[in-house]
Amino acid sequence: NAGVTQTPKFRILKIGQSMTLQCTQDMNHNYMYWYRQDPGMGLKLIYYSVGAGITDKGEVPNGYNVSRSTTEDFPLRLELAAPSQTSVYFCASTPYSGGGNTEAFFGQGTRLTVV
Amino acid sequence: EDQVTQSPEALRLQEGESSSLNCSYTVSGLRGLFWYRQDPGKGPEFLFTLYSAGEEKEKERLKATLTKKESFLHITAPKPEDSATYLCAVRGGAQKLVFGQGTRLTINP
């Protein structure tokens, strides 16, 4: 029972490099989310998706891109990495329900450092 | 715009000393208010979902309540293992899941 899987767990990037953070869920959840968490802070929403082919911006989308070609996968792309993108990134998913009050399941996070 | 504000930012208690954490929110079409616990270096762990004003949920030493504008997480006779960051989140009509900045709780033995 894998749940939400994020790869890699750790990564060091040089300024200006690009990378893709992978997120896969095996629970057939419709909704998926990407967050960043800076030290001592809460989670800031970067992008989210309500289903395959549909994505929307969250609170802090600048410097990031996403795609959702399948229900299972929701990769986050960083173009031209900057030191301000040093953070821990979490992916989450929730199922669809009529009431909408279902909890999100989280991956274990990707710790990214840009130097 | 959906917003969540948690207070206090940090709280230090003695073992057995009960207290409450606050979560104030504004959201268009509340679809759920969630409480999570997060330990250092780990992802958030689900605690409760509340949907309508007046609703209450309990789990061991924790009790969550909801009004139309805020939620409280009451901690009764806490133990050192309750030390963690507690996160509040709301899900509105647009299906965004928005978090507050969290409350760092420390329970001293």
Morphology of chain B = globular
Mean pLDDT of chain A: 92
Average of pLDDT of chain B: 94
Task: Please provide the count of β strands of chain B.
Answer: 11
How many helices of chain A does DSSP assign?
0
C-alpha Rg of chain B (nearest Å): 13 Å
Helix and strand string of chain A, N-terminal first? Answer: EEEEEEEEEEE
Query: How many helices of chain B in DSSP terms?
Result: 0
Oligomer: heterodimer
Low-confidence stretches of chain B: none
- The computed structural class of chain B is mainly beta
Distance between the termini of chain A: 36 Å
Classify the beta-strand content of chain A into a percent band.
Answer: over 45%
> Quick one: which chains have the greatest interface?
A-B, 28 and 24 residues
Into which percent range does the helicity of residues of chain B fall?
under 10%
Question: End-to-end span of chain B in angstroms?
Answer: 41 Å
Major sheet details of chain B: 6 strands, mixed
User: How many strands of chain A?
Assistant: 11
Q: How large, in whole angstroms, is the Cα Rg of chain A?
A: 14 Å
Strand content of chain B: over 45%
Topology:
The complex is a heterodimer of chains A (115) and B (109).
Chain A lengths: L3 E4 L2 E4 L5 E7 L5 E7 L5 E9 L2 E4 L6 E3 L9 E3 L8 E8 L10 E2 L3 E5 L1
Parallel strand pairs in A: 2-11
Antiparallel strand pairs in A: 1-3, 3-8, 4-5, 4-9, 5-6, 7-8, 9-10, 9-11
Chain B lengths: L2 E5 L2 E5 L4 E8 L5 E7 L6 E6 L5 E4 L2 E5 L3 E6 L8 E8 L5 E3 L3 E6 L1
Parallel strand pairs in B: 2-11
Antiparallel strand pairs in B: 1-3, 3-8, 4-5, 4-9, 6-7, 7-8, 9-10, 9-11
